[in-house]
Every structure is written in structure tokens, then in C-alpha cells.
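Here's what a typical entry looks like (AMP-binding protein):
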Amino acid sequence: MRAWWLPRGVLRRFVVDLLAAEMARQRRGTPVPPPSQWHDDARLDADLGADSLELMDMAVALAEALHLHESGIEDYLLARRTVDDWVAIAGEGLARFSERLSFRTSGSTGAPKACPHALATLLQETAHLATLLPGRRRVLCAVPSHHIYGFLFTVLLPHDLGLCAEDVFDLRASSPAWLARGAQDGDLVVAHPGWWRAVAQTVPRLPPGVVGVTSTAPCPDDLADLLVAHGLQRLVQVYGSTETGGLATRSAARRPYVPLPHWRFDGGEAVRTLPDGSEARHPLQDAIVPVGDRAFLVGARHDAAVQVGGINVFPSRVREVLLRHPRVQDAAVRLMRPDEGTRLKAFVVPKPGADAGLLPSLHEWVARELAAPERPKAIRMGPALPLTPAGKPADWDADA
């Protein structure tokens, strides 16, 4: 089995991304030390500020992701304190057992869920992806490597493209506008729709020969068109989930998706042919509209989730949190219209006589109770929820 964690820099990026994300999840919006401060000799407690409970959760997250319990080495994490220590322990664990990894879902409905994947199936996926992306000389990544999308495209795929670790560059500390002067012919840019939207707004013209990949959320057709108009050679859109990995791809807006060779659809399930010839079934999160023999279009989600910054969020859950506020009588939550923004908005009906000072109290409430993508960016108040003349729920202006 391929030792994907070698050279060390690849594993270090994975470990730091995971630990920083876990720290941010626990702190709910409190700033986390930037990557520039995660030096090899930095202590997770004294230098990076992790307390004992945070250290415990970070150790659990790393052990869960790399299945360190399979090698029996996870107990060493809490006995060590530096970034280099944890990277070394992770490497030793992988040297003993590397056949499976787990990736967490976003946790928008509560606690994140761990989704295990055999390394063989991940390699099966990137082997096909490499055939769709020939001629790439560098990988520029704007996504974290511990998420399944980032892991596939920035950890495993470079090897299949014949690239080395030095050919992978992290864009997250740079403005998307950097692409105008820093991108080169042969680059593969791995990002999500929110990041690509910023590119379209700040980069008038991309250098020739740059190919993009987007996933984690549906890419609006107008955005894909705009990026191509700005010089992007091609935007490969990947459809999938943390549970399944990539299911299908398309290379142009409005075209149907084409399943990866090892996937087929059977009713409301996606069926994967595994490397050993057996099959695994996964329930689909979206309605699938067949086009021809194998291609398809994506319909509405079964679970009513919406995408904010590449993260699945559930307006119903956000509404429940607002209703728990002692001064709120009713609430409605929905995604902003395209002309308003890309975040959630809320309409709140205060309890009688409870409207004075409620708005700042609500912002404090959601900052404490919700993760950043879930927090309504605009909250309006009124005596009753907006309704159409027919009595059905109606939209409202976020900036009114």
C-alpha cells in the first residue's frame, strides 16, 4: 500500500490542518493561531494555547482520522506536546497501519460524524481523476488537507499526476487575487465555490493553461461561466460527499454529471464497486435526474441542507437555536438571495414586550451556540413572520 505520508511535509500539513480545525471547532469563533505559528518545536499547550480538554479532543480527532488505535500508538499523543512530536507519532502509527482513514462531516447538525474509508478505495478514485487532469505541473490548494476533498486532490492525486511534494502549494494564506500574478500554465487550482467567487470578483484575467477543481458545494452555473470568461481553461466540478468521496464529475456548466467508473445508481442509492470486486451501497443525499444511460443532473437535497462556504448547514437547526432564546416567540431562517449574499438570514418575532435590546442579544446568542457558517448574517425583527397573500411562508429583504 502506498506510503502517502512520505515525505514528512505531506503528513505535517495534514496533521496541522486537522489540529487547527479541531481547535477552531472547540473555540466556536475564537481566533486560532495561524499556520505560521505552528512551528515544529511549538508546544500545543504553552505556545499554541491548547488547554487540557482541547488537547484531549485534538488527540481523539487525530487518532480517529488515522486509525491510530489499530497500531496502539495513540496513547503517546497526550504524553508529548510539540507539533513535531504529534507528526512523528502519526507517522509511526501509519507505518504500522495505514489501510483505513476517517474523515469527519461538517457537524452542522450537531457532533461531526466520522466516515471511514479504505485507502484502496481512495486510491481507486484518484487513479481515475488523474486521467481527467493530464499535463498538470503544480497543485495550488485553497482547501484543508484533512477533509476528504482536500486529501484526495492535494495529498493523493499529486502522486498520480507524477508530481512531488514540492509541487503542491497552499493558497490559504494568500488572497485569491494572487492567482493573477502567481498562477502558471499547467497549474491545477483546488478550491470551493466561495473561494472561486472571490477569484471571479478580484481577478480580471487568469493566466492561460490554468485548470480549476471545485467541490464541497454546488457551483452556480453563472460562476462557472464567469471563471471561463476570465481565462480559466476548465473548471472540473466534483459531486460527492464525505460519506462517499467523489461520485461524479463534469467539466462545464449545465452539463450532466458523469459517474466515476466504479459508481452506479440504483434507485435512491449509490453503489460502488470496490477494488476487490465487492459492492458497497450508500443512500443519496440528493434527488438524481437521469440523463441518458449513465449521466445525471442533481435535484433537490432530501435533508433540506443548504451550502454556506462549502459547508452543509440546516436552516431548521438554526431556527431551533433561535427559538431557545428566552425572548424569542417565533423565527424563520433561510439562505440569502444571490443579490443579498451567500450566508443565512433570519426573521425573528420577539415575545410581547421583549424587543428592546433583543438584536445584540441574539447576535451574542448565535455566536455562542452556532458554528460560523450557521450564524445568520442578517437578523430582522417584526410582529409576525412574513407570509404570502395565500398564507404561505414568504421571503424578506435581508437589509431592510
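The longest helix spans residues 8-27.

More examples are in the samples folder.
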